[in-house]
Design brief:
Layout lengths: L1 E5 L3 H12 L5 E6 L2 H11 L3 E5 L7 H11 L4 E6 L4 H10 L3 E4 L4 H26 L4 H12 L6 H14 L8 H14 L8 H6 L5 H25 L4 H6 L6 H12 L10 H14 L1
Parallel strand pairs: 1-2, 1-3, 3-4, 4-5
Helix pairs in contact: 2-3, 3-4, 5-13, 6-8, 7-8, 7-13, 8-13, 10-12
């Protein structure tokens, strides 16, 4: 993982450099002292991950991430911060931050967060492969039908992974839990062709009433978003919230739901059923 670091404190940069150099997953490709310098560097080094200080002179970390995310949307961002204000943390997430690392930094937290970013990058690459290798839907349906008719090695492990994820977001006992797992496994079996399958086609593979199945899954996905939103309100640093709010859902929709729960808005967040199922399929294939 190519990593770029921007922090105006040389002591913090030195500590992080030592931590990163000791981990074989990490390759530090550059350092910057401020947001302006970092934006210029990113045009040349193109890292996969940027560690950015929250409070920097001139351009603060949130503004830096907001600008950098527009220029380099594929890059992942982690914020280094001593800030505990929920509103400021929320602003950073809105700007495009994936995780926070608390200052003073320690190697355990830094490497744990880097591991989580690695999982996100793996899922990004999986989705990119899906998009680049699309074929005709009829051929896909035939291939997926053949695969689903015979036991697949690792099915038990994949089911366990999906069940664990659904339990984490409060859907372990939902009536649609089994159907969600079926749909996600089907999409995972479709491999590189999954994105050519619509949710309706996926449900039709298992149910004589695909619209009813789709509605049940949609209600469950919406309930999962509400559960995550409540976790985020309680603690923005909650592991389940940070891991799934931006992977199973569009993060801005989770934020909208949080604002609705707080009474700041009358508009609920909307769960994208396609993103929910496709992300579950991708996550289950990685574990």
């Amino acid at each position: 993982m190519d990593i770029y670091l921007v922090d105006d404190d040389p002591a913090v940069r030195n500590v992080l450099q030592l931590i990163l150099e000791r981990d074989e997953r990490c390759c530090l490709v550059g350092c910057g002292e401020n947001g302006t310098e970092a934006l210029e560097d990113l045009r040349h080094v193109r890292p996969e991950l940027v560690l950015a200080d929250f409070l920097m002179p001139g351009m603060d970390g949130v503004e830096f991430v907001r600008r950098a995310k527009k220029l380099f949307p594929a890059v992942r961002f982690v914020m280094l911060s001593q800030v505990s204000s929920k509103d400021m943390v929320a602003e950073a997430y809105d700007a495009g931050v994936d995780f926070f690392i608390s200052k003073p930094v320690n190697s355990v937290e830094v490497l744990s967060v880097i591991g989580k970013v690695g999982e996100l990058l793996t899922m990004d690459r999986t989705l990119d492969q899906l998009r680049s290798l699309l074929q005709d839907t009829p051929a896909l349906q035939k291939e997926a039908s053949v695969r689903s008719s015979a036991p697949q090695e690792g099915d038990g492990r994949r089911q366990a992974a999906l069940t664990a994820i659904l339990q984490k977001i409060g859907l372990g006992g939902d009536p649609a839990c089994r159907e969600i797992i079926q749909a996600a496994e089907y999409l995972a079996d479709c491999g590189t062709q999954a994105e050519t399958v619509t949710v309706a086609q996926c449900c039709a593979h298992f149910s004589a009433s695909p619209k009813s199945m789709e509605q049940r899954i949609r209600r469950a996905a919406a309930a999962g978003m509400v559960n995550l939103a409540n976790l985020g309100i309680e603690d923005y640093g909650n592991d389940t919230f940070t891991e799934y709010a931006g992977t199973l859902y569009h993060f801005e929709q989770v934020r909208r739901e949080m604002d609705c729960i707080r009474g700041k808005s009358g508009q609920h967040g909307r769960a994208s059923l396609k993103k929910f199922l496709y992300a579950l399929a991708a996550l289950s294939s990685e574990r």
